[in-house]
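Example A, followed by Example B.
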Amino acid sequence: MMNLLRKSLAIEIDGFVNFIHGQCRSTKTFTQSAFVQARKKIKPAVFKKLSQTIINEFYTDNGTSIKLWNGFRLLAVDGSRITLPITDELEAIYGQTKNQTETSIVQARCSVLYDVENNYVIDGVLAPLAKGERALALPHLEYCQLDDLLIYDRGYPSYEFIYEHVSQGLDYLMRIKATFSQSVIDFEASKKSRKS
């Protein structure tokens, strides 16, 4: 599953068993049905932990391979909606919403912290639509460090959200409305290319 299955399940299972047993045929075999049933027992937290282990390994003792932008690890944060299968279990967790045709669908909100230069998802979260983008983005800060530059689109700026970055000493870039604050209005009116 971590290798992102590309072939039929039977071929992938056979290839995995051969790999594990060093190209020697094992006397034990299992069916696709057994795999699917076993897969349902795996807790999602396992995948998050494995992903974090891989990411931590990449950023540890790998300085020459890590791509930076002007000395910064360039991190983008974005959120979106994801349409999920309509099941009672998913509806209970994420709720229902209506689409353009008034048909009820199950959707979740996702938020991702992404290393733009190295093509790694550092953190991701899935939550009910009722939870806003800012609320989902704040826990991403736990995975950030000094010398990161976080980039946000226009839905993120708020005084509280900016305060969290300033209080943690994190550099950020946010797309904001020209009328966001008096400081922004004054800067826009000055026609300067950067704040002096």
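Example B, a separate protein, is given below in the same form.
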Amino acid sequence: MSTLNTSSVEKHEAGDAVLATRIGRKDTAAFEALMRRHNGRLFRVARAILRDDAEAEDALQESYLEAYRHIAAFRGQSQLSTWLTRIVINQSLMRLRQQKRSRVVVPFAGREGIDSESPEALLADERSEPPPVATLRAEVRRILERRIDELPAAFRTVFVMRDVEEMSVQETAECLSIPEATVRTRLFRARALLRQALARDLDSVTVDLFSFAGDRCDRIVAAVLARL
């Protein structure tokens, strides 16, 4: 890591520590700043586990309330973002268990993956892109999100934390309470499964590329006949 990046991380961590202290004194402005700083990452982690926007939002809200009530428990032994991520993961898993009753769905700390064999898409800026390009980009994003949702939960969560949120292997392992080697293995499998799924999507549409039937066919035939 460069000196500049190291300095940036240290500054960010120091800022979090200051916010934690202020929140401990019931400073709501500091708490709002904390939420705005970490909203994106925490929502995506919850969404990766729950696969539902509304459920993820609810889990995130409950997590923030829990963090606010127990901010004194944060000792600074890890990054504040890591502490918050753990709360969100626990809250999301609790909701998942409630949904599935007594079934254990996400074996994060259990065995290595699933026996049956278990790029962040940019949001289109419609103000600067032609509508067809923006529509295509949005459709590609929806396809990618759908395929990510189909990944086994343990792999999906690691994929979002590592590839979407760009969390380090160490922090991801710490948040999920699994070995770093397990993080690497699950990410490798998630990427492989995602590539396979997207390759199938691509194969299914290539037969229709540059379609010649319909209006185009009629137009060319009519034009040729008119010139005869």
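On Example B: Residues 131-210 form a domain with the Arc Repressor Mutant, subunit A fold (CATH 1.10.10.10).
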